[in-house]
Amino acid sequence: MNEILPGLWLGKRPDASSIPDLYSKKISAILTIDRRPLQPDVFSSFKVIYLPANDTPYDNLLKYFEKSINFIEENIAGTSRSATIVIAYVMWKFKIPFKKAHDQVYKSRWVFPNDGFRKQLKCFEDMGYSFDTNSKVYVKFISENAYLEAPIYVPSGYYTCKKCRNPVFHSDQIILHKKSTKDNCSEEIPCNNGELFTEHLDWMFEFTNEIQGKVVYCTRCKAKLGSYNWCGEHLFFSHFFCFWIHCSWG
């Protein structure tokens, strides 16, 4: 957890074990933007606001900016969703453009709002740091990004870093496969039931500049998640994928 401004903290989703740390930092209000709310019985001593959203470029966080800013301002708060809300607040508070606000937050915490959220923050900047559904800027933005008005889709589950529990990808991004019965080929990648194969994930491009062979690390704790190959690999089950990741279970 990092202090962005005096009294404004940005961090991962808290659980029961986080409460002593929250108290030590004199945190009394929590804004959570996630697929599910915090447990009411665990956080009953805090003022809590919950905003449902997935961490994809297709979720509309812009509609939450005004409500979030008011909540933060009244209570003076990871993931790209939380970072987006904090950046929006910094933009509004100091009336500064997106890039300057992003850089200020980045100095305190390594944050990477996805492309969709970045566009929404730019729209917020173009609207003069206020949210108005009747604004010509907003109407034009929504008409060009109609997917933002779609209902929030909640996947059946998501996978997290084993070390810090940072969400890495959700179940719908897993490429299902069956283990092949044919003999191994030296040019193929083994599938020994200890791997998960995914489609490419946008957040990885911030850290993967080479074509292949490099390690992918967790964006939060820097633990090893797996490796990648943007050229693709032939696997024992005879499909061709652009990314593969080995996961440790348990």
Distinctive features:
Protein-Tyrosine Phosphatase, Chain A; 250 residues; two-stranded antiparallel sheet; hydrolase; 10 strands; 6 helices; alpha+beta; globular; protein tyrosine phosphatase activity
- Strand fraction: 15-25%
What's the architecture of the largest domain, going by CATH? Alpha-Beta Complex
Helix proportion range: 25-40%
CATH class of the largest domain: Alpha Beta
Uncertain regions: pLDDT < 50 for 5+ in a row? 184-190, 235-243
Which structural class fits the helix and strand makeup? Answer: alpha+beta
Strand line-up of the largest beta sheet? 7-10-9-8
Alpha carbon gyration radius: 20 Å
Largest sheet: 4 strands, antiparallel
Question: How many distinct beta strands?
Answer: 10
Average pLDDT, all residues: 76
Number of helices: 6
Total domain modules: 2
**Shape verdict:** globular
Question: Which sequence of SSEs, written as H and E, runs from N to C?
Answer: EEHEEHHHHHEEEEEE
**Terminus-to-terminus distance:** 25 Å
Which fold name corresponds to the CATH topology of the largest domain? Protein-Tyrosine Phosphatase, Chain A
Within CATH, the superfamily of the largest domain carries the name Protein tyrosine phosphatase superfamily
Q: Could you give a quick summary of the protein structure above?
A:
This protein is of the alpha+beta class. Helices cover 26% and strands 21% of the residues. It contains six helices and ten strands, in the order ββαββαααααββββββ.
